[in-house]
Amino acid sequence: MARLAIDRDFLRDFAKLEKPVTARVTEVFAKFEQATYAGQHLEPVVNARDKRMHTIRIDRFWRGVVLAPDTGDVYTLLKVLPHDDAYTWAMRRQVSVNSVTGRIEIRDVVAIDGSLPQLTMMAEQQPERLFAHVKDADLRRLGVDEQTLAFARALTDPVQLDAARGFLPGNQWDVLYGLAAGLSVEEVWAELGAAQTSEPIDTEDVAAAVERSPERIVLANGPDELIALFRNPFALWRVYLHPTQHRVAAASFSGPARVTGGPGTGKTVVALHRARHLATNGTGPVLLTTFTSTLAVSLAAGVKLLEVPETAAPIDVRHVDQLSHQVFSEHHGRPTLLSHEEETDLWRGIARRLELPFTEAFLAEEWRQVVLAQQVDDAGAYLEAKRSGRGRRLGPRQKAQVWQAVHEFTAELAQRQVWTHETVCIEATRLLGQRPDRPYRHVIVDEAQDLNPMQWRLLRALVAPGPDDLFIAGDTHQRIYANRVSLREVGILVAGRSSRLTVNYRTTAEILAWSLGMLHGERIDDMDAGLETIAGYRSEVHGDLPALRGHRTRNAELESLVGTVRGWLDAGVAPGEIGIAARSNGLANSAREALAAAGLPVRPLAKTEQADESIGIGTMHRMKGLEFRCVAVIGVTEHQVPASAAVTPAAEDETIHNQDMQRERCLLFVACTRAREQLAVSWHGSPSPFLTSVK
Ligand SMILES: Nc1ncnc2c1ncn2[C@@H]1O[C@H](COP(=O)(O)OP(=O)(O)OP(=O)(O)O)[C@@H](O)[C@H]1O
User: Any transmembrane segments, and where (predicted)?
Assistant: First the structure.
């Protein structure tokens, strides 16, 4: 019986087709396998470069392009396009098998043949060719075939190679790209490592190559699986890896390792695959953890999609506070937590009673960032403690005053038998230290940039030091809380085991470039005594520029938001693919009410049920780690972004002021880089200074 496979590129296109078309595609292909002679539905393409290209009727207007095998019964759906475009697309393309990876490749032969004469002519005027330093034999060894080789030989400029990305065979383009970027033949070979195969490759056997290309082609086992695939195409798309990502996910490290990279470079995808890899090939239970409960829910969904084999070690997905509370509760029962307001009152009361010249916010931060972070437990140690990044200098007398306040605060917690998340975490770490064993063999941390030192010590205590113990994914450009951690200082050494991803797979080049403009000139640390860079960070997908719109009043802005969202829905975007972010809870709630009043389906971002059917609305903080086809960031207004209350006045403390401002910029950057295709940024009254500063 005929079986249907789907090209992953098609899944991405599928998500963008209009609803009635997607319904027809699902209908046609759900029946595809039932037809005894699948060939009956398929029409050959006249003048096709590749005789295996066929088309199939979707409706009067749309056709699917299907790769029909010479042998075997696996048919691959490559594209769905309007009638004429489908024929043109199919006519120009050739399918081949890569001689090194054994994977399937598709190229636009007409485009290659069409551009070669002109490139050759231009090259004759140039003194040097792009790949003059690489021998033909080496190119062939890396899987470059004769046609691509002839093309590569005519190139003189990396820009020409960039332009050829859409029409050269993918694996071969990657090889050329690596060589053009200065990698040696051996390094490119190592990059290919993950995709190499030890079986002998018959480059004529396309059917075998289809089966061998799981990162490119998904085989649906029966109509139910196919329908599930079509129902949630992005979910599946989300779990593919580029060879560079694969290398990191499957590597063996002698100790803690990490992966960095800007938003959308696939750090989470790598973390998920690493979890599966270690569960399958590692030596014990795996913990996959992150910062918030919302993110943990989305990681758990990702693990589910990866279909970890039943024989693998368990993968436990939990956020960090959940872990500390669990360890704590096993010994002491559930802790009574001090609320934020109670804590503020307590510090305020102590400051008043002791007549101290410090605000409650300053005392609370000094306790967290210096006393707890550095495990300071007496006045002498506090006198010596490093206070870098804390801004305001303190003399010995002032330090004695702060210490007195800390002492009273701690005594009060003990007397009331109440805890904060930080003290729970410290106690949990102490308890773990007393245990003879460690609960996990491998710990993987996503969104690492926002964890505090107490949480890092807990994670360190959850796993014994050794190969592949800790794997850390994070991006300090996306730090949105006040925690600045040096991994060395919490006993985690990643030097020599760090990788950086540079290709953004989520956001269009236009949205990315605009968002990066907001961070222009910011000095951002790398959690390891250096500075993080955004050099080489790029997106290969193009789209519309962000829409920036100012309004006179808050109500006018909300009204316009309803219009923007309606426009997206009318264009066929599903409600679950729309996200709205505001700096404050208040504005997020008002936006929710405005959309609900207009009859649109909405939900708070924190609510993960029915996420597919409703528009997610929440604070910028909640947007972290998520992604949507269309994003509206609202209320990007002067005095609201940055939020006045979250920024220490420069007159009070310049260092802290600058850190607060950077954090607020990063927060807006995080919200804007959640968008895959469309970004709308709006304000009422005067715009935020962060917007007016974008170059
Ligand atoms: N190799 C790839 N090919 C295609 N798409 C990819 C690839 N890797 C990642 N993606 C897609 O890019 C998007 C971003 O991936 P992911 O969430 O892992 O990035 P991230 O670096 O963790 O982002 P952020 O730091 O912004 O949260 C996802 O939709 C993912 O499916």
Answer: none
